[in-house]
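Forum: Protein Structure Q&A
Topic: Joint prediction for protein chains with partners

I've read a bunch of threads here and the consensus seems to be that you should model interacting components together rather than docking separate models afterwards. I'd like to see that in practice. Below is the full input, 620 residues plus whatever partners are listed. Could one of the regulars post the assembled result?
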Amino acid sequence: MLEHIINMRFEIAAVFLFAIGFMTLLHPNLIKKIIGINIMDTSIFLFLAAAGYVDGRTAPIVTGLGADPSQYINPVPSGLVLTGIVVSVSTTAFFLALTIRLYRKYNSLNLDKILLLARKGKEKV
Amino acid sequence: MLPFYQNLPFFSIMLAMLVSIVCPLVKRTRPCYNLTVLATAMLFIFSVIVAICTGLQGESFTYQLGHFPAPWGNELRAGVLEGIMAACFTGVMLLSLTGGHQDFESDIENGKQNLYFLMINLLSASLLAQVYTNDMFTGYVFLEISGIAACAVVMATQTGLAIACTIRYMIFNSLGSGLFLLGVAILYRCTGQLLMEPLHNAVMLLSAQGSMVWPMIVSLGLMTVGLAAKSGQFPFHSWLPGAHSNATTTSSAILSGLVLKGYIIFEIKIIVRVFSLELLRQWHLTDILFLFGVGGMIIASLRARKEEQAKRMIAFSTVAQIGYIYAALGLGTKLGIAAACFQVIAHAFTKTMLFASVGTLIDVSGHEKRLHYLRGSARRAPLAGAAFTLGGLSLCGLPLLAGFGAKYLIANASFYNRYLTVAMLLALAFSSLLNALYYLPAIINFWMPPLEDYPVVRSDRSRRFSLIAFMIVNVALGVWFVPIMNLLLHGIELL
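Posted by a regular:
Agreed with the consensus. Here's the joint model:
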């Protein structure tokens, strides 16, 4: 049982991180929402990277000819995680840009309050 | 030697992306707009060629990027269904752009219009990529691109409410993308594959052996919930009315008519090409799709009835129409999938026409969005009034219009799933009745004598052209829905 938990440590950590991210996402504060989304994304990247990791093997960087593929971890998930990180950074940048605009207009970071003010048409002049 | 037409899906995606890069570099707006329209027209022609050539050849083809074979390379796959869907999306985009050039000038801040066209081209590229891709991770990347571009299009008006609605849309989008990626990661762990064909073989082998069944069910569930959240399917639709009703008229039309459909076509590809309908029925996931679909059809229609704002009413109607698509998918048969595809096409043309026409009606009523103040607006802009009437009646299910064809085909498909026939027919009847209960009063209100005298406004030539084209296509879809359905069925066989 303990060995199974140790073997699955990355997956278990990913599930915990996803739950923490999701709970943070539910907070009305926009910055906390953005942090929550980032934690969720990170948990998925950890889960994906763990899929390619093999204990005792090294990073798939071939330094000489005739290298043995069985020495290396699976490089595909690492490549996917890199792409995922780029996408996540772009989304976060866009989120932050929108948040700055909303803060300038409504002087608040609380999304519920902002929506209420926006529906009433009360922008800060 | 590769036949030339097999390069066209790749060329289409690249062309849209290239134009999106060029747009911000062009200083003036007009050449940028013309370039976007020209590129979209070329995308439409390419898509039609792909549909015709694959139809004549009677087979789909796989296009390897960089000639790397699976599992290392990235692939596109195209057949009749992909060609028809790409032609539908690019055709609707072309008509929306040609009809909306005055909106771009009036509703979007000077200096930002070129960035708007950048986003429109990215949307075209991501829609085409979702239609043509054969790789799950590429699909995820384009889901994200589509989400970001759609959010940027919503906030183009720069009002506080539009930005607040955009951030809400963005949260659902990110959540949907996250769930989808988690589903892909689980599936990769089970199978070690990302391309659809090897994935399908691995999934079938594992399910035959009875191993990894629960992880695969969880994976499909996560991907479906992720795509449902992005496509505004009930009960994940709360972002949609605000986002779609606060965008510019053309943006609302493109978002409601096209962006949501890209996710659905990708979902259909995953269901048919990766998992197969038999597995979905065996795992009872079709029943869940059906349940949520019917829930959306009824609850969103009930909500639309209460709306006082015209654009919000149409946005809730979109949620109901998305429900039709998921309910048809939930029938778990090829006929159901084909009926869902027809509904995608019918709704793309109808909803775009409705948003374009109601935008004109709002413009001629002093930019007042509430239904009460739009009284008599159809008399001021008769062509827009006629287009709204035709679109509204189509969604109510009037014969000889696109909406009737979709409802007929869904009803017909339900007879091949005897457990769901009665539920589907009742849901269709009740939902059509609800549609009539909010569209007919709106149509009557628009044609009533106005409270104050306003001059009759003649729409500009491009708007007239696009509205007339939408009306013609709507009637054509309503008259020739059987041959179109046969083509779609043929496409699904080749998928």
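Chain A touches chain B at residues 18, 25, 30, 33, 37, 40-41, 44, 47-48, 51, 76-77, 80, 83-84, 87, 90-91, 94-95, 98-99, 101-102, 105-106, 111, 114-115, 117-119, 121, 123 (CB under 8 Å).
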